[in-house]
Amino acid sequence: MTPRLEKTHRRADGRPWIRRRWWLLAIIAAGLLAYLLLGSQASIFRLGELEEEKQRLHRRYNEALETAEYYRDLMDRLGADDAFLEKLVRERLGLAAEGERVYVIIDKTGEDEGEK
Predict the structure, then answer these.
(1) CB proximity list for 109: less than 8 A, separation 6 or greater
(2) Residue 99 CB neighbour total at 10 angstroms
(3) Tell me: the pLDDT tens digits for 60-96?
(4) Residues 36 and 63 reside in one and the same domain
(5) Has residue 76 been placed in a domain?
(6) What are the DSSP calls for the chain, one per residue?
(7) What is the pLDDT of residues 11-45, one digit of tens each?
(8) Residues 57 and 22 placed together within one structural domain of the fold
(9) Is 109 a member of any domain?
(10) Which domain holds residue 34?
(11) What is the pTM of this model?
C-alpha cells in the first residue's frame, strides 16, 4: 500500500477507521433491538396482553358454541316432541287446554315474612 492510502484509512492516533464503524453498527443494532423489545407493537409486554386476550376470546367462543348447540337442540326438540312443547307452554306461559282450570296458590305466610 502507498503511504497516502494508509493515511486515509487511519485516524490521527493510528487506529483504523473500521473500529468506529463497528461501534456505530453496534449502537444502531442495540437501538433497533431496544425498539423491537420495548417500543413497538410486537414488544414483549404487548405479547403477554395479546395472549391473555386470545385466551379470553377463546373462552367466549366456546361458550357461544355451547349456547348455540343448546338452542339448536331445543329447536329440534320443540319441532319433534309435542309433549315437551305442551309442557313448556303450560309451565312458562301459564296456558291451559280448553276445559281445564288453572289454580294459582298464593302463599300468604311468605308475603307476611317479607313485609316484616
Answers:
(1) none
(2) 5
(3) 999 999 999 999 999 999 999 989 888 888 888 878 8
(4) no
(5) yes
(6) --HHHHHHTB-TTS-BTHHHHHHHHHHHHHHHHHIIIIISTT-HHHHHHHHHHHHHHHHHHHHHHHHHHHHHHHHHHHHH-HHHHHHHHHHHH----TT--------HHHHHHHH-
(7) 677 666 655 567 788 889 998 888 877 776 666 67
(8) no
(9) no
(10) 1-40
(11) 0.46
